[in-house]
Amino acid sequence: MESVSDRQMIESPLRVEGVVTPPGDKSVSQRALLLNSIANGKSHISNLCEGDDRTSILRCLIGLGADISEISTCSTHTNTECYEVVGNGPSGLTEPSEVLNAGNSGTTMRLVSGILSGQPFLSVISGDRSLNARPMDRIVQPLTKMGAQIIGRCNSSLAPLAIRGGNLSGIDYKMEIPSAQVKSSLMIAALYAKGHTTITQPAQSRDHTERMLNSMGANIQIDGLRVIVGESDLTAVDTEVPSDISAAAFWLIAGCCHPNARIRINRVGINPTRAGVLKVLESMGANIRLENLRDEGGEPEADIIAETSDLVGTEVGGDMIATVIDELPVLSLAASLAKGTTVITDAAELRVKESDRIKATVDGLSRLGANVKERSDGMLIHGVQRLVGSECDSYGDHRIAMTMGIAGLLASGTTTVKDAHSAAISYPNFWNTLYDLSSSSPNS
Prior knowledge:
Elements: E1 2-4, E2 7-11, E3 16-20, H1 26-37, E4 40-46, H2 52-63, E5 67-71, E6 82-88, E7 100-101, H3 106-117, E8 122-126, H4 137-145, E9 149-152, H5 153-156, E10 158-164, E11 172-174, H6 180-190, E12 196-200, H7 208-215, E13 220-223, E14 226-230, E15 239-240, H8 245-257, E16 261-269, H9 276-283, E17 287-296, E18 299-307, E19 315-316, H10 328-336, E20 341-344, H11 357-367, E21 371-375, E22 378-382, E23 391-393, H12 398-410, E24 414-418, H13 430-437
Parallel strand pairs: 3-16, 4-15, 7-8, 11-12, 19-20, 23-24
Antiparallel strand pairs: 1-2, 2-24, 4-6, 5-6, 8-10, 9-10, 12-14, 13-14, 16-18, 17-18, 20-22, 21-22
Helix pairs in contact: 1-2, 1-3, 1-7, 2-3, 3-6, 4-6, 8-10, 8-12, 10-11, 11-12
């Protein structure tokens, strides 16, 4: 593999083998930082996610006066870097003197908007060009019903968002699509609202916020697809963040799809609402096994071994989509090398991510010789015997960049990924790890 300006050039090695520990889970990291910032007491958070998403949530919280600092002695007893958060309760934040910058992180913008809706002051939150083009009306409408005053571009559907919060009241809200970001934004605002807020999901989405709020003593009830949250004071909790399964997914596919591979991925969070990628790969006949299953702070985790597999096509849709939405691009790569046909439906949400991920995935895989067709809400993929290296564009999207990087490990010839630096948004060490796993390293 060779870096040329902002291009990565990859060739398939004779063998892919090694041990990987991906960055800390982004969803757990962001929630641990945010919720402990409005809790009572001191907490230590270790193995945080890496890259721009961590920068974004820390920048916004510190801009609100949160007391967060990196420390050398950590009560979670790990060798990873550790952050101390000193929470001063739900009213401990202060009015920001500058615009809060969420960067490229949709999770940061939506979760922080929930906390801002409960604050009795004015704040403005914005992001980069990509984030400011992503839909925010899905949080603006219910937060406004709770009593927050929110103004944004395009009839308050796009950021920047100006939010004057406080005086919230609980509401009954039925979500149109399953979204952990929307659900979590409303749950966080509900901590400040009089009465109870009931959120009804059309299907189960990731439940990191529910688990963490429960561990912090929140007034929360779970009744099937309904989540009921009342006004609450939180108690700070130490958190050792598990490795991100969305990051692990790239190595799972590399291990399963390369003809001579064995990859061990350590300490991966396997929360059932996030682990859809394991179920999809199981349905495809993947040679995967879990070891050392354990529970850390309410989040299940395990070490995962992925080895060369004979994959077959499958169907992905319905309720499964919410548990696998971020992994669909790289799963599409696996499907392009599987026997038979894979159908992905009900995934229109991919079109409003950091890029239009349906279009970006189809474009990149097609350039490599995959037989993949774009549909309005997904893809139709007919497996082929091999992929052939070509030039692919990341579209500035970290998950597309990494998907095409893994494709380079699997395709004959040379694969070039343009704008490869975007992988650093969530996984700064991705390209180095990819190179390390290429044990025979025939790369130019």
